[in-house]
Amino acid sequence: MTETDTKRPGKIPGQGRVAGIDFGTVRIGLAITDRERLIASPYEIYTRRSERLDADYFRRFVEQERIVGFVLGLPLHCDGRISSKAEEAFRFAEWLRTLTGLETEFMDERYTSVLAHEYLREAKMTQKQRKARIDKIAAQIILATWLERGCTGTTEYEALDD
User: I need a surface site. Which of 25, 37, 46, 116 has the fewest CB within 10 A?
Assistant: First the structure.
């Protein structure tokens, strides 16, 4: 598979629950939609362990929650260039596709963590409480954005307006 193929969004089926992912090398924030895809809710934060244990976790997650596809946050540079973290996210998406057989779409995640911190600060949470929730709230924002866009991911990588 070429780099261009990896960046091309998948075709998530039109019905069923979708999982949002805030990808990290240590922690992965997860959010899920309801079956009607009206609401994105924070799910949990998974701490990565090993490829085998990670695979077991994601297989169980897909089966238990009846997930039909993934929306993965894509960490782009502000000018729209692909970051090294985005390259890692592309590799993770391919790993997920191979593991689960499910398609993955990408959603621009620039500033989602900042927004998640702001939401949690407004909720009067302590720094410790915010840290324990930030990744799954970022995943919720990624997934909610995908829903608001009519269930379509980011296909063009553009600079943010000044």
Answer: 25
Tokens 């596809």 correspond to 69
Instruction: Give Rg (Cα) of the chain.
Output: 15
Beta bridge partners of 103: 69
Structure-block tokens of residue 16: 């069923």
75-92, pLDDT tens digit by residue? 877 777 788 888 999 999
83 neighbors 76 (Cβ within 8 angstroms): yes
SS3 46: strand
CB atoms closer than 10 angstroms to residue 99: 15
Of residues 98, 99, 23, 19, the one with CA closest to residue 66:
19
Helices (H) and strands (E) in the chain, counts: 5, 5
CA distance 13 to 11: 6
Backbone phi, then psi, for 8, in 5-degree steps? Answer: -70, 130
pTM surpassing 0.70? Answer: yes
